[in-house]
Write a structure and sequence with these properties.
By secondary structure, the chain is mostly helical. It has helices spanning 2-11, 19-23, 47-50, 63-99; strands at residues 36-38, 43-45, 60-62. Helix content is 56%, strand content 9%. The chain has a three-stranded antiparallel sheet with strand order 2-1-3. Residues 22-63 form the B box-type domain.
Length: 100
Protein backbone atom coordinates (compact mmCIF):
# COMPACT_ATOMS: atom_id res chain seq x y z
CA UNK A 1 0.00 0.00 0.00
CA UNK A 2 2.85 2.36 0.83
CA UNK A 3 4.58 1.69 -2.50
CA UNK A 4 1.30 2.34 -4.33
CA UNK A 5 0.80 5.61 -2.47
CA UNK A 6 4.33 6.73 -3.40
CA UNK A 7 3.69 5.77 -7.03
CA UNK A 8 0.43 7.74 -7.04
CA UNK A 9 2.17 10.78 -5.60
CA UNK A 10 4.94 10.58 -8.17
CA UNK A 11 2.45 10.22 -11.03
CA UNK A 12 0.65 13.35 -9.82
CA UNK A 13 3.99 15.16 -9.61
CA UNK A 14 3.81 15.59 -5.85
CA UNK A 15 6.99 15.87 -3.83
CA UNK A 16 8.05 13.12 -1.48
CA UNK A 17 9.56 13.53 1.97
CA UNK A 18 7.00 15.94 3.39
CA UNK A 19 6.48 16.41 7.11
CA UNK A 20 3.26 14.42 6.86
CA UNK A 21 5.18 11.46 5.51
CA UNK A 22 7.71 11.74 8.34
CA UNK A 23 4.85 11.48 10.85
CA UNK A 24 3.62 8.30 9.19
CA UNK A 25 6.91 6.64 10.09
CA UNK A 26 5.88 6.14 13.68
CA UNK A 27 3.37 3.84 15.35
CA UNK A 28 -0.02 5.53 15.71
CA UNK A 29 -0.62 3.74 19.00
CA UNK A 30 2.78 3.94 20.74
CA UNK A 31 4.50 6.84 18.94
CA UNK A 32 7.54 4.60 18.44
CA UNK A 33 9.49 4.26 15.18
CA UNK A 34 8.29 1.54 12.80
CA UNK A 35 11.25 -0.82 12.66
CA UNK A 36 9.97 -4.22 11.50
CA UNK A 37 7.46 -5.64 9.02
CA UNK A 38 4.99 -8.41 9.91
CA UNK A 39 4.71 -10.69 6.88
CA UNK A 40 1.47 -12.33 8.04
CA UNK A 41 -0.38 -9.03 8.50
CA UNK A 42 1.54 -7.00 5.93
CA UNK A 43 2.06 -4.21 8.43
CA UNK A 44 4.91 -2.12 9.75
CA UNK A 45 5.37 -2.50 13.51
CA UNK A 46 7.13 -0.73 16.33
CA UNK A 47 9.09 -2.67 18.95
CA UNK A 48 6.15 -2.64 21.37
CA UNK A 49 3.66 -3.95 18.78
CA UNK A 50 6.14 -6.64 17.75
CA UNK A 51 6.13 -8.09 21.25
CA UNK A 52 2.34 -8.04 21.56
CA UNK A 53 0.36 -11.28 21.50
CA UNK A 54 -1.07 -10.37 18.12
CA UNK A 55 2.35 -10.51 16.41
CA UNK A 56 4.59 -12.54 18.72
CA UNK A 57 4.28 -15.76 16.69
CA UNK A 58 4.42 -14.01 13.31
CA UNK A 59 7.38 -13.73 10.96
CA UNK A 60 8.84 -10.23 11.26
CA UNK A 61 11.74 -8.80 9.30
CA UNK A 62 13.67 -5.53 9.55
CA UNK A 63 12.31 -2.87 7.19
CA UNK A 64 15.46 -2.66 4.99
CA UNK A 65 15.39 -6.43 4.47
CA UNK A 66 11.70 -6.51 3.50
CA UNK A 67 12.19 -3.53 1.18
CA UNK A 68 15.01 -5.40 -0.55
CA UNK A 69 12.87 -8.56 -0.79
CA UNK A 70 9.84 -6.77 -2.26
CA UNK A 71 12.04 -4.75 -4.60
CA UNK A 72 13.48 -7.99 -5.99
CA UNK A 73 9.97 -9.42 -6.42
CA UNK A 74 8.79 -6.29 -8.22
CA UNK A 75 11.84 -6.26 -10.49
CA UNK A 76 11.34 -9.95 -11.35
CA UNK A 77 7.68 -9.31 -12.15
CA UNK A 78 8.59 -6.29 -14.23
CA UNK A 79 11.15 -8.30 -16.19
CA UNK A 80 8.52 -10.98 -16.89
CA UNK A 81 6.12 -8.32 -18.15
CA UNK A 82 8.81 -6.79 -20.36
CA UNK A 83 9.63 -10.21 -21.84
CA UNK A 84 5.93 -10.86 -22.49
CA UNK A 85 5.57 -7.43 -24.12
CA UNK A 86 8.55 -8.11 -26.38
CA UNK A 87 7.08 -11.46 -27.45
CA UNK A 88 3.72 -9.83 -28.21
CA UNK A 89 5.39 -7.09 -30.24
CA UNK A 90 7.31 -9.70 -32.23
CA UNK A 91 4.10 -11.63 -32.89
CA UNK A 92 2.30 -8.45 -33.93
CA UNK A 93 5.10 -7.49 -36.29
CA UNK A 94 5.19 -10.98 -37.83
CA UNK A 95 1.40 -10.92 -38.29
CA UNK A 96 1.55 -7.47 -39.90
CA UNK A 97 4.27 -8.69 -42.31
CA UNK A 98 2.24 -11.76 -43.13
CA UNK A 99 -0.87 -9.66 -43.86
CA UNK A 100 1.16 -7.16 -45.93
Amino acid sequence: ARVLEIARRLSRGEALGTEEEEEEEECQRHREPLEVFCKEDGALLCAICRESRAHRAHTVLPVPEIVREYKEQIQAGLQTLKDDRDKLLELREAEMRRNW
